[in-house]
Amino acid sequence: MNIHAIRAIYRFEMARTGRTLLQSIASPVISTSLYFVVFGAAIGSRMVEIDGISYGAFIVPGLVMLSLLTESISNASFGIYMPKYSGTIYELLSAPVSVGEVILGYVGAAASKSIILGTLILATARLFVDYQIEHPLWMLGFLVLTSVTFSLFGFIIGVWADGFEKLQIVPMMVVTPLTFLGGSFYSIDMLPPVWQTVTLFNPVVYLISGFRWSFYGVSDVPVGISAAMTALFMLACVAVIHRMFATGYKLRT
Amino acid sequence: MSDDNAIISIRNLDKTYASGFTALKNINLDIRRGELFALLGPNGAGKTTLIGSVCGIVTPSGGRIHANGYDVVRDYRAARSLIGLVPQELATDGFESVWATVSFSRGLFGKPPNPAYIEQLLRDLSLWDKRHARIMELSGGMKRRVLIAKALSHEPEILFLDEPTAGVDVDLRRGMWEMVHGLRKRGVTIILTTHYIEEAEDMADRIGVINRGELVLVEDKHTLMAKLGKKQLTVYLQDPLNGLPAALARDGLEVSNDGYALTWTYDLHREHNDIAGLMRDLQAQGIHFRDLHTQQSSLEEIFVELVKERS
């Protein structure tokens, strides 16, 4: 295994975060804090409890997940798209690195940033909302699993995209709506029965449900199914990336 | 036929792009260990595709490539570790510092950090003073040197230089070629593409000419120049001639429009050019001359001729 290459890519990507701290860390933390202020402190105080949890506390896992998904995708897609855009991808393609090493470097860095971000958002949320974590290990597990999975998904988007518009279109047009409709701000029990069934086709429901369970012990779908669905999506992403590198899809001519 | 001393061996290499454009047609080529091989060809001839195929950037449609005995597809780790590439485009990470980007390249190619080596490399390329500068702040020539430093960061045995002096000023070009000489002395095999054919003429051991995806020829530089080069003798006359006297007639001899010069073009490899015979004939005809000038065709002229011939 080319450990030096993994380390080089990882450090390179983390250094990019260091240069863009305001954009990569501060900006999502501030925007999520605004959600807590508006939905948690202001509106939340006038809303009824959901599953015995105050509304402000109820939305914490969903909001963390919202940032985690969008930032994981954004970090990983940008990480691999930029070398393609600037032309420096030639170096990665001509280097003695395997697909696995490339994934560990790029996706590892993107996921690390997301985990740091998720932790910061949770710490910030504490300033506005009182919440507890019933299953801290599961919470950490979901945090890591989701960050890795959606960083892998972002990596795929970065390879696929051949312009900045494409880079933005999936997070904006697909992931954000799915997250909003995936139970970030409500329990799917609150929906009419038909929409409850439709919602189960939204993969983000499983992520938010599992993550919320690790906080309060209540979930829309069984936690085992949440974990299994996320793991399945992760494996699918790994398979797609492997295929992309094997065929040189949008990488090699 | 494979060369026992070959460090790169290319067999039956084809490349047809998805658009249907055939960039390489049945290329067979051996690059010898330690040589400087110049690959010449007009724009779009297939030079960069050929280099890309060896380095792993282009997926060949057919054929095999070995680097030091390693298949570049199957044993890509071993093969790529040996190779450094300076691309034609100035592709750099503008926001990175010189030091960071060169160190990154070394790591990417599987080498442990070696600050002393990187320092020496940057000093050799006159980049040491700029080590903390962001690449976007550097001039085009300096960016080119950064690319060379990146390519050399993992101490490769084979170096591809794809148009390394394009857009580089004369002083810098000279500096680069000094560095290339130094690398050759250390045994690094260098494959060069360039538009400045005089550079190939000065430095290369062997020349390959590629045109429309086909390797037109591969030849030792001196042999090529002797075989395909022409020499021209110009005799400047005291009085003009109205035409070429029959007694002087011979292949390649022409009289200028104003009648004041005779130009004789002959092949370098022909043993009996008989210049003395021409001089005797001139004297016998009472034609007096005031000056003589000889000129040998350059590699550039040979190259242009070759490409024109095969087009």
From TrEMBL, chain A:
InterPro entries: ABC-2_transport_permease, ABC2_TM, ABC2_TM_bact-type, ABC_2_transport. It is a multi-pass membrane protein. It is found in: Cell inner membrane; Membrane. It comes from the Bacteria. Its main location: membrane. Keywords: Cell membrane, Membrane, Transmembrane, Transmembrane helix, Transport. GO terms for cellular component: ATP-binding cassette (ABC) transporter complex. The chain crosses the membrane at residues 20-43, 55-82, 102-125, 137-161, 167-186, 198-215, 221-242. One of its GO terms (molecular function) is ABC-type transporter activity. Residues 19-248 form the ABC transmembrane type-2 domain. Belongs to the ABC-2 integral membrane protein family. This is Transport permease protein. It comes from Parahaliea mediterranea. The lineage of its organism: Bacteria, Pseudomonadati, Pseudomonadota, Gammaproteobacteria, Cellvibrionales.
From TrEMBL, chain B:
It holds the Pfam family ABC_tran. SMART domains: AAA. One of its GO terms (molecular function) is ATP binding. Keywords: ATP-binding, Nucleotide-binding, Transport. PROSITE patterns: ABC_TRANSPORTER_1 (PS00211), ABC_TRANSPORTER_2 (PS50893). Residues 8-237 form the ABC transporter domain. Gene3D superfamilies: P-loop containing nucleotide triphosphate hydrolases. This is ABC transporter ATP-binding protein. It comes from Parahaliea mediterranea.
